[in-house]
Amino acid sequence: MNQNASSTPVFKDTNRPFSERVTDLIGRLTLEEKVGLMSHPAKGIPRLGIPAYNYWSEALHGVARNGRATVFPQAIGMAATWDPALILRVATAVGDEARAKYHAALKRHGYTQQYQGLTFWSPNVNLFRDPRWGRGQETWGEDPFLTGTMASAFVRGLQGDHPKYLKAAACAKHYAVHSGPERDRHHFNAICTPRELHDTYLPAFKTLVTEAKVEAIMGAYNRTLDEPCCASQLLLVDILRGEWGFEGHVVSDCGALTDIHAHHKITQDAAESAALALQKGCDLGCDCVFDEIPTAIERGLMTEADVDRALTHTLGTRFKLGMFDPDDEVPYTSIPMDVVACPEHRQLAYETAAASVVLLKNKNNILPIQPETKSIFLTGPNASSLEVLLGNYYGFNNDMNTFLEGIAGRVPEGMGMEYHPGALLNQPNAIRMSWAPGMAQAADLTIACVGSSPMLEGEEGASLLTPLNGDRDSISLPENQVEFIKQIAMHGARIILVVTGGSPIALGEIEDLVEAILFVWYPGMEGGRAVADVLFGDVSPSGKLPLTFPQSLEQLPPFEDYSMAGRTYRYMTAEPLYPFGFGLSYSQFEFSDLALESTEVGAGNGLAFRVSVRNIGERAGAEVAQYYLSDLEASTIVPQHHLIGFERVTLEPGECRDLHFTITPEMMSFFDDRGKLALEPGTFRLEVGSCSPGTRGHVLGAPASLTAEFCVK
């Protein structure tokens, strides 16, 4: 036998399974060394050649807080593309940039600092249940199925498809029942029924764990059903590890372990919190509470075996990332720094931003801007803003493209263009008279870039202009923006509204004063170019709303109420301003020939159907066929209708495509009052169209939907 091979420690033997290598490494550690690995800045172990490692890295819509990177649209904007294949490409690019930057940092320092690692605390798959929540922009919308589908594509792209190694480790957060208010997040107790827990708040997490194989889960700050989420028997033991068979690691949100004793008052001190969290399945702390593990062991609150179990999970992730293996055996180590913010990734950011734009109104087809237009006037507080490109949890780039820059670069020579900001973001102008109304009056078209900003919505501590720790107390446009739009409208301006934001904005009377409305989210580094190309018709808008836009706050239950009654398109009975799934195009589409394979189906069997979608317009475009199911005879509370599938299709003028889909028994089932999945006999309605069921979408211009009913025997 080779002498050197026989002396190689098992944890360094790349021919051994990861599980054996992890067990061997843990067996070589002292308790002090183990404790040094239990917090997000994990200490190094020089005697074993284990470098220090910081688990905290971010990649919400591109590598974040770590120097130069490609900045893609904010997550809620990516959700508006309804295009999982596109999101897979985006996340693949993000993972490539992450790998390149990680290895560059290693070569420079021999270790990585915070935000330079490969364990990314993304995606955020909390349900966007209330538009007041400032962090809703980080999510994939209000629907559990859409969220699970889109975020799964993100996880797969980020983690890669190698049979042995992870490109990067994704993390589904914040588990679970967490969506504001931000000011209460450290002590809040989220109360929901077992039915709502399993019907609404858990499905996206389950999809990411069981289908996308997400490597990590982050526990939320709050309590859910009286238990701290980072120390919950129900969430972590019974459901995550028990029902779903999760094998990765669980990390606390930052400071959440301290909250257990300091704010939830569940334990007396940090040692008790450390013991409780570890025993219930939190493996890694993002604070210093796990430093008290030796004290907890001395007091008999826990054992060293609890530490070993946690390290099995966290070190398992590091082994899967190839952190202890030679570079030539790990396929992702050779990704060059040239990929970071490369032209191909910039083009992908542009493509994604363009696909995320939602056309909400287009009176008399004023858009796209016609070549014969003599002059345009660009105005509004967000026209030249870099902040509205970025959203939150963003990376940086030395070549950002604002709306002013994008439109200036696209406007045809000979077409006049003027610019004036016209209004401030959320406060009245200091001067009494502005040139802007006169400039709007003189132009053929006025493009007003208004809306929200990360200054007005975001996470606790991030948004400088909100009094509610990042949340909103109103979902309307700031009053000074409303007054500015009314002023230029009174001067006869023909207004195209370009609205930025990470959450619904109730436009009120403004909706009637403008000719067209584009909702463009926080569109990333190529936002200006993408929006300009949509305005001028180089790209036909195809985005769809991933959440309902209410007409006002009066249509919503209290923010603190976690019951789903009256919330989201699935349970809301009031007529919205813009419905979930809605978005217009420069072309027109028609659905026809919906055909079920049968009108009766036995319990436990699937039901196939087909439908045709045709482009009846004069230009190419993309449409999203959406499939909704309603249980008309359920014995308990169920959604009025729920999304079960969708398909994005690009069609030339006159082109027709036949789409095929199978409704599975699980799609026909509902969660009963105990939170158990049940399938009952009865009548079901299938609706196929380009937005969620209801009359509002059709009034706004969505094509007529098709319905069919069938019975489950």
Q: Any overview of this molecule?
A:
The chain is α/β, with parallel strands linked by helices. It has three domains: 3-333, Glycoside hydrolase, family 3, N-terminal domain (TIM Barrel, Alpha-Beta Barrel); 345-547, Rossmann fold (3-Layer(aba) Sandwich), CATH 3.40.50.1700; 589-712, Immunoglobulin-like (Sandwich). It is built from 23 helices and 24 strands. A six-stranded mixed sheet has the order 9-14-13-12-10-11, with helices on both faces. Strands 16-24-23-18-19 form a five-stranded mixed sheet, with no helix packed on it. Helix 5 (84-109) packs across helix 6 (144-159) and helix 14 crosses helix 20. The longest helix is centred in the N-terminal third of the chain and has 26 residues, at 84-109. 54% of the residues are buried. The model is unreliable at 1-5 (pLDDT under 50).
Helix content, binned percent = 25-40%
Whole-number mean pLDDT: 97
Strand content: 15-25%
Runs in which pLDDT lies below 50 for 5 or more consecutive residues are: 1-5
The total count of strands amounts to 24
At CATH level 3, the topology of the largest domain is: TIM Barrel
Provide the structure class.
Answer: alpha/beta
CATH class of the largest domain: Alpha Beta
Domain module tally: 3
Number of continuous helical runs: 23
> What sort of overall outline do the alpha carbons produce when their principal axes are compared?
globular
CATH superfamily of the largest domain: Glycoside hydrolase, family 3, N-terminal domain
- Terminal Cα separation, in Å? 67 Å
What's the CATH architecture of the largest domain? Alpha-Beta Barrel
Order of strands across the main sheet: 9-14-13-12-10-11
Largest sheet data: 6 strands, mixed
